Amino acid sequence: MNKIFPVAVVGGGIAGYSAALTLKSLKTEFIWFAGNGYGDKLEKAEHIRNFPAFSGDGESFAEALEKQRRAEGVDRREIRIDGVYALGEKFLLTHGKEEFYARSVILATGVKSGGRLKDEEKFLGRGLSYCAVCDGALYRDKVIAVVCGAAEFIEEVEYLASFASRVHVFCRVDGAVFHARNIITETGVPIRLLGENRVQKLELRGGDTLDIDGVFVLDSATPPAALVGGLQADGVSVTVTRDLKTNIEGLFAAGDITGRPYQYVKAAGEGNVAAYSAVGYLKS
Fold first, then answer.
1. 130 vs 262: CA distance, rounded Å
2. I need a surface site. Which of 70, 139, 188, 202 has the fewest CB within 10 A?
3. At residue 84, does pLDDT exceed 70?
4. Full-prediction pTM beyond 0.85?
């Protein structure tokens, strides 16, 4: 139980898997904490169209990843790490009362989405999305609602308006201004998603409902610094160098937690770079 692994990868999404796959090819021992696997956000995606050589839904993408993982012999532990602590020349990683040690860590936990509307989990991939760039084109000439919780996403609301026939925006950013004529700024408070197999209505506080074809929840997440004490970050984005080093020696970050764009292809590339950087760190 006191074994010290050369590298620990924390996070089960594309960035974490890419890092683990690269470490395997570099013949570097590692332990990969994958949480709940590739995650509902990926597995329930309606359509993935920006990943080279792949076109299809999230379930098919996850199946392809899993087939490759098994063929390459990349092991993973489906447990969620709740704390990472720098202890000089090694790191302590905890899962409840369990403890693991590593010389270096690649943080690839992604950004947390959800929790703002009731039944989000039920409708993920069925009219609910967290990525405007990923799914905006699916709602061409349709009516959508957007819950915008941060100024950085105002531009994405405008982007969605270039596809949708009408966009109802529930914005929590003071002084936000939208320019597209088909954007309607709402004053109500959305609380719940309604529908049969897909999202059909958005329930507001007070009982009123809005007929829609889809909902986008665009918001920031809990700062990664909550997982690693002393980690330098700008809001939800970990501050990294070009080779994905953080301000903590031996700790690297990859994927959505390094900032936008929140794209699978970007996460895969950063996972690869972080793995090479971790191996370089170990050699030095």
1. 10
2. 70
3. yes
4. no
